[in-house]
Amino acid sequence: MPDTLEPAAGGSYPPDMESRVAVLEQIARSMLAGQDRIEHRFDTLEGRFNGLEGRFNSLEGRFNGLEGRFSTLDRRFDALSAEHRSDFRWLLGVMLGGFGTMLGVMAHGFHWL
């Protein structure tokens, strides 16, 4: 493929061509250095994200353990709730029975019966 910058009649490149090529080479070197820095930063970030992923996995394990504890507490709460419910029913029965007995004694005392 013929060089499009070289004059068709022969001769050499334009006089400022070498400085232009030098500038392009410098731009290419700086872009490579910048790309290396970016890749290094991405590698660092990837390491940090892998560390965070490990932490999240350990937290997930802890939450799964807590979930088991909560199910145990839930069963205990259900047992306590059933016990309190039976105590409440027993006390309500005693109170109603005592109130009924008191009304009966008052009715007998006032000769209502």
SSE topology:
Elements: H1 17-109
Describe this structure in words.
This protein is mostly helical and 113 residues long. Helix content is 82%, strand content 0%. The longest helix is centred in the middle third of the chain and has 93 residues, at 17-109.
Which terms summarize this structure?
113 residues; mainly alpha; 82% helix
**Major sheet:** none
Please state roughly what percent of the residues sit in beta strands, choosing from under 5%, 5-15%, 15-25%, 25-35%, 35-45% or over 45%.
under 5%
Class based on secondary structure composition and strand pairing? mainly alpha
The span between the termini is: 129 Å
Shape: rod-shaped
**C-alpha Rg (nearest Å):** 45 Å
Number of strands: 0
**Number of helical elements:** 1
Q: Which blocks of ≥5 consecutive residues have pLDDT under 50?
A: none
Estimate the mean pLDDT confidence. 86
Write the element-wise H/E pattern from the N-terminal end onward. Answer: H
Helix share, percent: over 70%
Q: How would you sum up this structure in a few lines?
A:
With 113 residues, the chain is mostly helical. It contains 1 helix and no strands. It is rod-shaped.
